[in-house]
Specification:
Layout (H helix, E strand, L loop, with lengths): L5 H9 L1 H19 L12 E6 L7 H7 L8 E7 L7 H10 L4 E6 L8 H12 L4 E5 L3 E2 L4 H6 L7 E10 L5 H25 L8 E5 H6 L12 H10 L4 E11 L6 H18 L1 H6 L5 H11 L3 H26 L12 H15 L4 E4 L2 E6 L2 E4 L12 E2 L2
Parallel strand pairs: 1-2, 1-4, 2-3, 6-8
Antiparallel strand pairs: 3-12, 4-7, 5-8, 6-7, 9-10, 10-11
Helix pairs in contact: 1-12, 2-7, 2-13, 7-13, 7-14, 10-14, 12-13
InterPro entries: Ceramide_glucosylTrfase, Nucleotide-diphossugar_trans
Pfam families: Glyco_transf_21
Keywords: Glycosyltransferase, Membrane, Transferase, Transmembrane, Transmembrane helix
Length: about 400
């Protein structure tokens, strides 16, 4: 009769992350192999680019200018800022002067009272947009001239309701930014591909989403979610619930890092994972079995033998490095991924701490304000300051 000691049970549990990593490797290979087919060509409907902006992001002008250099026949770029005192406004007005042939419009204020200012701005821009097909992007995004063609192509299929894609940094000027990139390639993106493999794409990634006004109106539009966090996840989920396909492209845009210190990165990731704890509590709890480093260390602690150390710690690093190289180097064509592999254990240690810290977190900090998440909605701890000229339009 077999008998199991506590040591045997712990050693067995510590092997569970390897099952997850195997699924992640399979999901990543299948995704990038299956996505090699060419996208449809010749589908170029007029597009409204919607950009809610607030404050002056690093390299803001170059980010916005990349949207004015698109190799696309007919599109507009629509910005929405909170008020006329926003420091980004002169940058946008310079943009209209530098690109006179590009259709650029700037609207001031959302004309709404909502907790999530970004979503309130999007609600107004959807109404203001000149065209049915919409591309929504964050202010820190920078794109190549083929961006609109690549992103809009899957919407030629009427079964597709939304399109989203990966994002990578424009450049890495510090070890903190390299650490963040390793986290995205080794942790965040593999998790997304596992979710796609097991349950399909029922989310969208915030830096860029392509959809139509009809798909947004079908669930009530942005005004229906203007007091909730994680609007990107919600848009993808609510469009998928209409029976539409959400397409994840094997294509990466670039984003300009908006953090410089380790503490800024820590709290940025803590905010995101705290929101996920409220939106997907069981999925958040299940993340414990994706954290290979602490489990490998525990296995060595309960059985400190060379065989266990090689199997668990050595196996952990080899599999994590292979996954990072697969997603970053092969899938997303990033250069120099191998130089960052040594940062994987550092990221995994921090990710484990962030996951633990999220259980004690009652608030999130976003754009300089603190919020509670109550019944799935953002509740500001302090009242918002009113914006001037809300609802008016700037004529450049």
């Amino acid at each position: 009769m077999l008998t199991f000691t506590v040591r045997d049970i712990l050693i067995g549990i510590a092997a569970i992350p390897f099952i997850y990593y195997a699924i992640a490797l399979f999901s990543s290979i299948r995704f990038f192999l299956g996505s090699r087919a060419a996208s449809p060509v010749g589908f170029t409907p007029p597009i409204s680019n919607l950009k809610p902006v607030r404050g002056l992001d690093p390299d803001a002008y170059e980010n916005y200018a990349s949207f004015c250099r698109q190799d696309y026949p007919d599109y507009e770029v629509l910005f929405c800022v909170g008020d006329t005192t926003d420091p980004v406004l002169p940058v946008l007005q310079r943009l209209t002067r530098d690109f006179p042939d590009c259709k650029i419009r700037i609207v001031i204020g959302s004309g709404r009272t909502a907790t999530n200012d970004k979503v309130a701005k999007l609600a107004r821009m959807v109404d203001e947009a000149a065209y049915e097909h919409l591309v929504i992007s964050d202010s820190d995004v920078r794109v190549e001239p083929d961006y609109l063609r690549r992103l809009i192509a899957p919407l030629s299929d009427p079964k597709v309701g939304a399109v989203t894609c990966f994002y990578v940094p424009t450049e890495e000027t510090s070890w903190v930014q390299r650490l963040q990139d390793v986290g995205m390639l080794s942790d965040f993106y593999p998790g997304i591909l596992v979710a796609k493999q097991l349950d399909g794409v029922k989310f969208a990634l915030g830096p860029t989403i392509a959809t139509t006004r009809a798909r947004l109106h079908a669930f009530g539009g942005y005004s229906a979610i203007e007091n909730q966090p994680a609007d990107d996840l919600l848009v993808g989920r609510l469009i998928a619930e209409q029976g539409c396909e959400v397409v994840l492209l094997p294509y990466a845009i670039t984003t300009v890092p908006d953090y410089q210190s380790l503490s800024e990165l820590f709290y940025k990731r803590l905010r995101w994972i705290t929101v996920m704890r409220h939106m997907r509590p069981w999925g958040h709890l299940g993340l414990i079995f994706t954290l290979g480093l602490p489990w490998a260390l525990m296995a060595v602690a309960v059985d400190p033998t060379p065989a266990i150390a090689v199997t668990y710690l050595g196996g952990y690093f080899v599999v994590r490095a292979a996954l990072t190289a697969l997603v970053g180097g092969w899938g997303l064509k990033q250069k120099g991924v191998w130089k960052k592999l040594a940062w994987i254990p550092v990221w995994d240690a921090m990710a484990s701490l962030i996951w633990l810290a999220s259980f004690a977190r009652r608030t999130i900090r976003w754009r300089g304000r603190d919020y509670l998440i109550r019944n799935g909605e953002l509740v500001p701890l302090l009242p918002a300051e009113p914006h001037a000229n809300a609802g008016s339009e700037v004529i450049p």
